[in-house]
């Protein structure tokens, strides 16, 4: 069991029986207010033979809560090079988070051997404390800390030394480091109370000034191996949690509504999206990237939903008070100017950069495939490139889909191929390794297979795959304000990211990126694709630090650029073998709700009619409603601490979409006539008025529920004008004189009911069967009398009926 897995394990206070006396050693404590990067560590004092044997493996806690909490704030240098100082300085803060005083608070720095596998980029951070066998001496940072009191300190340690304790770093690599804090809680004994871990990338070793012998191995700098650089492709995501309010159909002149105004802050100076874009602008400028190596290795992934939102924000927008109600009250949005400026900058960058469109709203492709609606699938996969190109005025990469969950199952792969995808980008641990049969198709690969690759499924034959390094993606996902863990991260590589400081998580990401250039230099054809999560909360200086690391690798010759176009053009040995473990994590109820509302949108779309005189087409009118469903299936934020919040947003979105569709369906109806409808005869027609309050024309069918005494003729398809009404003449035949109740309604062309049912009371002047009998009897009598007269006339006999009548 790892240290982190047990970091919050409860322990009785009386169990603090281990005594560890801190020693003053060569790990030097410097005042927090002094600049740490340039500070030389003091000469060693005291015994450097401190041992870890008496230190408990698990930090002591009280009722599940730590006595002390250690947080790393800066690491200098963040990446060690041949020109760096020969020591590392860490600034950190220790805080008393317990319920009693802690005395003799002391810290020391420890290190372990370099990471040698991609999985080790994560698992090395969960090693037991005694695995960090290169140790410094404990240095007291506070004589005592009262409850809620904190103390900031700087701690330095040599990278390598033969005369005093050091980190034991003798070659370039990525090294896990640990800060260990001990103390003596009131009423208890001295124990290890917390630790903090991070990765330190060492791309080159500086000269060790402590070595007097000029022929010593560490008397000169040790540069990295650049003979076999790694070919690197970097995807840079620009995306956000869906913000457009749901349940509102498209229009030509109405302002859009947002569920909140947080996007305004993200687009403004210093906001998350501003810093992500600014990092690209800065790192790719000619002065810093004269050969264009970084620019050619970089491809910007853009969520079309973000572009749609920002583009609409530039024209002014509203913010709703209740996201679950499409008719909610609103207030004015404040981010129009920031949106316009950010969009203009993005257009400039995109015009000279590789751009690829993400799935719309980072929707769960597995869920969309399960729903099985081709139109919804097209909106998720095919339409995004057109949206991005239309708004930015560029030509983005086509036939390429970046998986939102890190993998695709066989059904999803088939759906993507049907939607025009040729290549899908997935995590390397979502792809099964090739079989032993030499005739079997192999996977498309751009990195070495992961140790955790799956083997359950058979190869598909419709889609090729390229993949990114999953461990590096997990490290990048930890960067930012809201760290996350990708869904396909193996259990042994998972730990509680909230226990790490933001600085420590950034160090882990820098270490992961450098790892691919430092390890495996003797392996030919080395390649790597670096892909952060699509919804990435990196901000502040973090995006610039990451791009600066990539740029340094390219400039130093440790890496070479590999454009996305080259990656997609590389020949593959066969279709990918994808794992069924990559299926959607959404619950069946959510998928069922989306499926039902999607069917209603399709039904409505079939009945809407395009008006050549109106700019609002049926497609534009229904597109926001379909996009609302994709937003409800968004993966943004699902794997982070805001998963409950994003889940609630998805539920509100589905509720609003249902209400919006109910309102649209209710806007087309038959108006109920007042009183009783009297027919002039048994075959008189009924006159009904159908009303359409939608801004587009609609074709409807008339549905009639009449009693057996009434026969209604089918009137076929009727077109109702936009925001208008039409009288429908309904041929009817009644063979009864009593009042009849007839239910009328209109439906879409596939029979889905629109509006409410109108009940009409019908009265006819017809006498039914009695009238028919009387008429028949009268006719028979007439024929009888006429025949009698003719009979007498033929026989020359006077007709008795003529008695008393004389001719003039």
UniProtKB/TrEMBL annotation:
Signal peptide, first to last residue: 1-23
Skewed-composition ranges (Polar residues): 46-62
Q: Where is this region: Disordered?
A: 38-62, 427-460
**Alphabetically ordered keywords of this record:** Membrane, Signal, Transmembrane, Transmembrane helix
Give TM segment ranges. Answer: 766-786
Q: Which organism is it from?
A: Rhodococcus navarretei
**What's the name of the protein?**
Glycoprotein
**Composition bias, Low complexity:** 430-460
